[in-house]
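Translate structure to sequence.
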């Protein structure tokens, strides 16, 4: 969808994901997707300890709560940092495709970062118009891994 209007660079920044094996499986799918779609990409450093430090004290928050707001900030900020260093003018995020993700919360975080960095956030709400269902269909066709939980250890069975 985005490739029609933009030159895309896919940025993978997911220090939230744990355990590391789960991170590796999702990263493999990212490589597979970028290969299939001939996308330029960059993989950010994996720093789960740094991410855990960022959400310290919010471990027991429910999904869509304060821990998620920090998590989204942590990862989007790294995206803005990368964009700034590489003269990228627009950012958007696939985070909005997930039915349990709060798109207005994502937009609010992105707006504050756009003000700070002078980079425009393109406000796609990818879950609209059956976006999640279509994503699942595409993922199955492309043999991509389908995650069973959001990503952090607190959203997995092991974290409960
Ligand atoms: S539930 Fe998802 S969005 Fe929320 S903190 Fe965990 S990984 Fe981040």
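Result:
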């Amino acid at each position: 969808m985005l490739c029609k209007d933009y030159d895309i660079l896919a940025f993978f920044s997911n220090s939230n994901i744990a355990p590391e094996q789960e991170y590796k499986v999702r990263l493999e799918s990212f490589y597979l997707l970028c290969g299939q779609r001939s996308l330029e990409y960059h993989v950010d450093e994996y720093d789960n300890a740094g991410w855990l430090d960022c959400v310290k004290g919010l471990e027991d928050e429910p999904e869509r709560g304060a821990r998620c707001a920090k998590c989204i900030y942590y990862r989007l900020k790294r995206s803005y940092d990368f964009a700034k260093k590489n003269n990228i003018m627009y950012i958007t995020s696939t985070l909005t495709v997930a039915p349990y993700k709060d798109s207005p919360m994502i937009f609010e975080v992105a707006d504050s970062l756009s003000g700070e960095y002078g980079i425009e956030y393109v406000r796609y709400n990818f879950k609209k118009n059956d976006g999640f269902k279509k994503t699942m269909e595409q993922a199955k066709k492309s043999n991509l891994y389908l995650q069973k939980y959001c990503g952090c250890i607190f959203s997995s069975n092991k974290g409960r």
